[in-house]
Give the backbone structure.
Amino acid sequence: MTATWEPLPPLPAPSRLRLRSVLVLYRVRLRSRWLQELLAVAGIAAGVALLYAASVANSSISGPVRQLNQGIVGNSQLQLVARGADGFSDDVYRKVRGVPGVRLAAPIVQAPASLIGPGGRRPVTIYGSDPRIVQFRGSLTQGYSASQIARQEVVALTTSVAVAVGLHTGDLAHLQIAGRDQLVGIVVLGRRDIGALADTTVALAPMAYLQGLAQLKHRVSRVLVETEPGHLGAVRTQLQRVAGGSIDVRSADHEPRLFDKTSQPTAQATMISSTLSSLVGFMFAACAMLVTVAARRALAIDLRRSGYTSRQIGGILLLDAVVLGGCAVLMGLAFGEVLSRRGFAADVSFLEGAFPIGDERVVTWSSVAIAAAGGLLAAAVGVLAPLRGVLAGGSPVHRSASRRQTHAAVLTPRRLARLGGLLLLSASIVITIAAPGAALVGLIALTLAVALLLPSVLDAVMVIVRWLSRRVPHPLMSVELALPQLAAPTWRVRSLAIATIGALAVLGASALQGARVNLQAGLDASAADNVRVTDLWVAPYAPGDLYAVSPIPARETRRLAATPGVRRVSVYRGSFLDVAGNRAWVHAPAPDSTRPIPRAQILDGSVDEATARFRAGGWATLSRALADALHVRVGDRFTLPAPVPTNVRLAAITTNVGWPGGAVFLNSDDYSRAWGSTAVSAYQLALDPGVTPEQGFAAAQRVLGARSALRVETVAQRERREKAASRGGLSRLRQISSLMLIAAVIAMAAAMAGLLWQQRSAVARQKLDGHSTAVMWRSLAVESGVLIGTGCLVGAMASLLGQVLFSRGLQTISGFPVIASVRVDVSAVSFALVTASALLVVAIPGYLVARVQPSLRTSD
Amino acid sequence: MSSFRATPAVASTTLEFRDVVKDYRIGPETVRAVNHVSLRIDPGELVALFGPSGSGKSTLLMIAAAVLGPDSGAVYVNGRDVTTLSSQEASAYRMRELGFITQAIDLLEGADAVTNAALKLYGLGMRVGPANRRVAKMLDAVGLGARLKHRPYELSMGERQRVMIVRALSTEPRVVLADEPTGALDSERTTEVLELLRTVTTERQIATLLVTHDPQAAEYADRLYTLRDGTLAPSEHQALPAPLAP
């Protein structure tokens, strides 16, 4: 053979690698391993979806509150806010207008109500103002006033409310407000009128009309203020003088800021779980990329041998990361969007009584950016990290030599990993016992510990499986074929990646789910404590009526006392009150209530002593966070910032009884003095002996009549509702843990399928030895089972610690009544679910691989 | 010292190993892969290196390619010690001065013959079009003119190996290192590949080091050596290992 080609033109001077060359190389690589790449994309996409959905759910909590507040307050900077539902005299408004430096001022009345339409009943907060508020340019009030209905005596509903109760413009509807049922005309405000606020659950009415409906003549709830430039400080001081210590002077964005603070315990709980799920999602993505590491390593070695520089190889591989990561991000965002719309939304309806909550989904650029950056980073790490030796100019060209070197070098890192894993595990145990407040750090340490210890555990499992297989009289061919494959150094990284995905998924999901179950148990116990103090509850229908915080005139006491079968009627008062920067839930049962302070919720102080003090009056309890914020201990005196500021002493410190803003207990007489009102929030009916709750329920309903603005509930009904509300509040923890399991199954199945697919050559060669398709399939199943099973088992075991750690963390950080126990059942279910699902999914590619024709194929 | 030939002063366009030593640590043990090897290959000369598996042949090639560093000794190419090159300089050396031929399984599966052969030229920064035209001429010259757009699995093993050789020669290197290039070929294809190597070595005045198990190589080599336990010794054709059964 000759090689007499024409003289070649001289080579150009070396220059930078051209983009087209990089693209050509990418295209040819993609042609030969599109399936593995697709599986890696699926794995990353699962992680991205998890990141995105969690992030959107987070931003959707406070977003609507912020939007709604902005829609009302507009450009105002300051506001005077009433401490009670009765508001304050509109004289204050006139005084505010006279304050030097005040450019604009406008009053607002707000009242809780319940609206009844053909489609059902809906609690709603009604805001009333007059045309002066338009000057603040809030989108809600602006749109309302522009719709030419602000001077008519009608109630304007947002589309969201109107649709929920089946009302249209021009309809008449029953409005239950201030304990009375009234017929009102309806107007619906759509997106054209008020933009995105059409999705919020509020209503609007002319101020004078609402004052009449709510029996708040000459009373206002807030006064919004805009100052002349440079007069903010001076005006604030003057407003405080006008407020006189019984009205709060706040900045215009006080409501969303208070919401953020009140929902902080919930947000912290979800933040921990979101961070954990993000970490797991990121590691899913990175692990999914490791599955394709062999092909990239071979390419990098080939290129290096051909003279490519590390920079060139890095650039070529980075394109892999960009393309793969980009596709995965797009797919993940689409999947995450579907998840976020269908069931991964934040359910914060339990906060509805204290804040105007919208059910709008808020997608911010940061949610998209976080998810996209996570996906791309995972792809880059997955592509480049395993090849850092090659990229650093190492010497992996000669495979046998490199293997020998690698083998020698791996010993130390493996020991280091084991040591690091044990240290991190110890750290997470110490945090669980001594510093549960650092739960997030502990959970991250535990996650990393699992990732570092898994290789050693996998080795141990393989030894055990081998030992067990030796005990069987006839050799198990599938095991004999699978174990060497698992032990092969070339597959090591990929095998570990798959096992790690399983471990992290089960760990994350079980820790979250276990903690949620523990928290739910605590909240259920708290709900029972709150509700089981009487036989029947009678409270007005209104936003947050579960908390009995909407005052009504106490005119039903006699009628209810005359109900057949009712032995006694007690008055219950309650409201939300801003204490130490938190919106606290104030409980004010009658002094002679059976168990006025829930025994199980007391953290500091004697139950009997606290109850005696409560009955005597002049004492109150605070939840831990509130007591800490006010720097008071049991027995100390403090001022309750009620409409009439009142000095009381601390009888005991409690949990937050399930309300994230904290709780206050005082007797209803003290409450009446401090709020300057005899209004009640609920009636507690004790039944005669022998009268069943159902009989009492029916009798009370008959007495009140069908159109009553009051809802009668048995203890069982109310407890069920309270538990449902708390479940709603915890729904995101459940959704995150479920999503983590789904993402894990996808990521693991994708990675495992990729791994199996790469074994076609090996299987083809082994079939030359006469192994049947069935044996090869079983062998692949054993391989998948050992990897997935070991990973998930390690994750399940670690999750037992994770549950306790997370539960104790929630207890410490949030003040929620958590029962910190180990839920083996939760871990076992997660383990079984992920293992079985992943094995079922990989059975199909396993079968396809096992069917490959016997051959001497030397590459895939 | 087990060098076969005394080492004269360094001349240009030669490949010269000088007293090269390389050890590997395997757990607590140290294994000597290359034991004081000295060898000089002049332009136009094809030297065949035989030896059993694990004898250090490929390690020697890696050291010559400046991928592995020796524990001691030096390798001179065109008067420059390539064992002292930085990572960047080593890449440039492999790109411009060296052609590395491995078994054809290293071809990119998804790429056609032209793209596979042009891989080095892309790395040099050449435009795709001119690079492809350049290697197309070379592929035509080695009998693959009708197979330019074929992918590796559409080529015979001998054809794949020729693609690999064209890739190595595409930058007109002065030194060629061939690592078992006929390892996966039948006798007829082996002859073709060895003939091609012989031809380009002579015509292009290349210093070629051929690592092989194949006894046929003896017919095409100017000199034969055997590497056993890292030690280089002159080889007799009769002393070569028996060919592997097909």
